[in-house]
Inverse folding.
């Protein structure tokens, strides 16, 4: 518990031990936080709660900050359980407290908790007055990253409670951007964007323009996860604008899986060819079976091109490659180039499958779009892989 301003207190939970999120889908190697806020004014407002493992702790701590019966309103910016799990227990104690959320928020909260609480539906532009010249304005942000989401702007302190937008899975005792390592913070913000927000980049662009059009002063952005933006607000706004605009750096990423090392040798030889032609490109190789898939997603998001390789296995591709390509499909990336490679014993099925999957992921494919090597690549195969890498570098240049 700590103060953000004289009237706003952080009442959430820093989760130092969290290492996986969304089930086992996303890695959170630096932990996270479940940010909830209490505004104390003529009317007292609770914004969001915490995830289920911390509900009892949350309510006990909240009682130390305020008599629960003096909470006038609850604002649920987002219904996902990492933000809303304390609502059932809390509303058992203060059952008539109004819960402000979007229409889709009501659907989601009822879907999770099967309760018909005292819901108040709000939409963009609606205002909740909480004091003399003090109010909270609601701004819907559907599909950033769920249909129900919204932001809330508190005019007295110029704080934008941004829900999942501008967040990071990042734990820190300081909780403000100017108190942490900025490189580390932006890296975690990018990883968060690539893995969670990127499929909805069109919406990001729209909402950034909408925020700009509202012409409201913002002194602090308080996301639902990670540290709050206070001294670097313009930087994170600029980063989001760039990330939403078909983002890419001078980077090529090679992802592969290999049963006995043949596909790995192909990957390294293709990389050699790329370096021959473009020594200044940032070139990264990942074995999908042993690498963190969330980190791979971030690196592919940064890349201008990728190559994907797999051994042929039971007339298909290896599981790790199939899984990561399914993630790429959901990311809806644009203007990134790609090619496939693979080894085989009896039939070169992997590269056919990979080529089709890359098309489904909307990558722009090189022609020829793939290279194969039978069994264990010989010196001639290696030379062809190097040439393939050189051609790919020219294709991407």
């Amino acid at each position: 518990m700590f103060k953000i301003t004289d009237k706003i207190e952080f009442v959430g939970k820093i989760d130092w031990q969290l290492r996986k999120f969304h089930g086992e889908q996303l890695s959170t190697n630096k932990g996270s936080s479940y940010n909830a806020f209490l505004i104390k004014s003529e009317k007292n407002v609770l914004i969001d709660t915490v995830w289920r493992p911390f509900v009892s702790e949350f309510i006990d701590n909240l009682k130390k900050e305020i008599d629960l019966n003096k909470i006038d309103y609850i604002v649920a910016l987002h219904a996902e359980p990492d933000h809303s799990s304390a609502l059932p227990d809390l509303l058992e104690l203060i059952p008539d407290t109004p819960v402000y959320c979007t229409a889709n928020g009501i659907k989601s909260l009822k879907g999770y908790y099967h309760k018909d609480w005292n819901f108040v539906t709000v939409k963009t532009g609606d205002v909740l007055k909480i004091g003399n010249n003090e109010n909270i304005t609601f701004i819907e942000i559907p599909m950033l990253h769920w249909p129900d989401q919204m932001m809330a702007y508190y005019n007295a302190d110029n704080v934008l409670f941004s829900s999942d937008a501008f967040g990071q899975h990042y734990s820190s005792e300081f909780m403000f951007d100017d108190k942490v390592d900025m490189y580390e913070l932006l890296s975690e913000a990018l990883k968060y964007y690539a893995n969670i927000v990127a499929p909805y980049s069109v919406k990001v662009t729209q909402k950034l323009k909408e925020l700009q059009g509202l012409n409201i002063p913002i002194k602090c952005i308080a996301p639902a996860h990670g540290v709050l933006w206070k001294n670097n607000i313009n930087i994170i706004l600029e980063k989001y604008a760039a990330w939403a605009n078909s983002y890419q750096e001078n980077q090529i990423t090679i992802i592969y899986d290999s049963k006995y090392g043949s596909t790995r040798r192909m990957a390294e030889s293709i990389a050699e060819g790329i370096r021959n032609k473009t020594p200044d490109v940032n070139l990264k190789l990942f074995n999908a079976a042993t690498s963190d898939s969330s980190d791979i997603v971030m690196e592919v998001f940064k890349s201008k091109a990728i190559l994907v390789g797999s051994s042929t296995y039971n007339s298909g591709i290896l599981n790790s490659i199939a899984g990561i390509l399914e993630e790429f499909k959901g990311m809806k990336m644009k203007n990134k180039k790609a090619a496939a490679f693979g080894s085989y014993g009896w039939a070169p099925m992997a590269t056919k499958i990979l080529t089709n999957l890359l098309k489904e992921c909307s990558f722009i494919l090189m022609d020829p779009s793939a290279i194969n090597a039978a069994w264990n690549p010989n010196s001639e195969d290696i030379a062809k892989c190097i040439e393939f890498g050189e051609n790919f570098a020219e294709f991407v240049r």
Observations:
- The chain has a mean pLDDT of 96.
- The first helix runs from residue 55 to 65.
